[in-house]
Amino acid sequence: MFVDVVEAAAFGTNCYVLAPAAGEECLVVDPGIGVEAELLDRLRAHRLRPAAVLLTHGHLDHVWSVTPVCAAGGVAARIHGADRYRLADPLGGLGPQLRAALAAEFGPETRWQEPSDVVEVTDGETLRLAGLEVDVVHAPGHTEGSVMFAVRRPGREDLLLSGDVLFAGSVGRTDLPGGDTAALLHSLATRVLPLPDGTDVAPGHGPATTIGRERAVNPYLRQLVPPASEKEF
After folding, report:
1. DSSP three-state, residue 53
2. CATH topology for 2-230?
3. At a CB cut-off of 8 Å and minimum separation 6, what does 79 contact?
4. pTM of this prediction exceeds 0.85
5. pLDDT higher than threshold 90 for residue 68
């Protein structure tokens, strides 16, 4: 499977490109701030044609470029229904200073438009797009509609696009509007910890990791795992 990543111009957001191979249709995941030009170059270089844009959640650093990317490819954006409202105003939860700073560097807020075609995804749904099978895993806590996308890889563990649910050594913050610490811990316990150790994790920010590594070193996961002496045998 072809996997490429374009780092956004702000907040270090990872925008992923997935395809069965170069020269085929692809999925674009979380096109953040300022990725359009580099993303287009990568698509041209590898002869890739977007079939859909997937959004792990509705925060602006993951959706800033969704409308031009969708428009350029003539494709729909897919987002969980609980975060659908965020596409109306992804800047809505920001303070005035940050809004002004982003507008000054990346363009006036009035330029924001929702994608013309938005499809809501649901927990447990399997998306069959661009020759790939992608399972939708609803994992609220960072936002109400945060999801992880588990890309099936025959003969191997899934590739988990974890968005801002799980990072290498950390997890997504819960102090922004719509965040819920208890919900995130529940998501980690029920949606992340049961995954096989060999699952590769491609997070929304920072380097790639594996479930096995995070189970061993991530303090947020370790607090959810009982000591060996307390486990049932």
Report:
1. strand
2. Metallo-beta-lactamase; Chain A (3.60.15)
3. 55, 57, 58, 63, 86, 87, 118, 119, 120, 121, 145
4. yes
5. yes
